[in-house]
Amino acid sequence: MSANTFGNAGFSVLLPGARLEGCCGPTNARVRCHLGLKIPPGCELVVGGEPQCWAEGHCLLVDDSFLHTVAHNGSPEDGPRVVFIVDLWHPNVAGAERQALDFVFAPDP
C-alpha cells in the first residue's frame, strides 16, 4: 500500500501504564499486520469489542476501521510492548479499486 497515504509501516511502542482509548482507522480498504516483537503480560488490544491476543514472533491481522483500544497494564519492570505494523490491502478490495485509491490518495510530492 505504499502508493497511497493509507499505507504505512513502523514500530509501535507502548510503555507500561499507557492506554489508547477508542480510535478508528481512516479506511476499511486496509488491514494492519501486527508482528509481536515484545509482548509483556498485561497488554491488551480490543477491536470491535472483541479481545485480540498478540504473541511474540507471530502476526495478528487487524481491521482498524473498527473501534479499537490498546492498553499496557503491566508494571514498569515489564518494559514496553513493541509491535511492528505493516498496512496491507484488505482482501476484498479489487485490483481496479486499488488503482483508483492509489490515484486519489497519492502522497504529496
Automatic annotation (TrEMBL):
<keyword id="KW-0560">Oxidoreductase</keyword>
<dbReference type="InterPro" id="IPR027443">
    <property type="entry name" value="IPNS-like_sf"/>
</dbReference>
<dbReference type="InterPro" id="IPR051821">
    <property type="entry name" value="Asp/Asn_beta-hydroxylase"/>
</dbReference>
<dbReference type="Pfam" id="PF05118">
    <property type="entry name" value="Asp_Arg_Hydrox"/>
</dbReference>
<feature type="domain" description="Aspartyl/asparaginy/proline hydroxylase">
    <location>
        <begin position="4"/>
        <end position="91"/>
    </location>
</feature>
<keyword id="KW-0223">Dioxygenase</keyword>
<dbReference type="GO" id="GO:0051213">
    <property type="term" value="F:dioxygenase activity"/>
</dbReference>
<dbReference type="InterPro" id="IPR007803">
    <property type="entry name" value="Asp/Arg/Pro-Hydrxlase"/>
</dbReference>
<comment type="similarity">
    <text>Belongs to the aspartyl/asparaginyl beta-hydroxylase family.</text>
</comment>
<protein>
    <submittedName>
        <fullName>Aspartate beta-hydroxylase domain-containing protein 1 isoform X2</fullName>
    </submittedName>
</protein>
<dbReference type="GO" id="GO:0016020">
    <property type="term" value="C:membrane"/>
</dbReference>
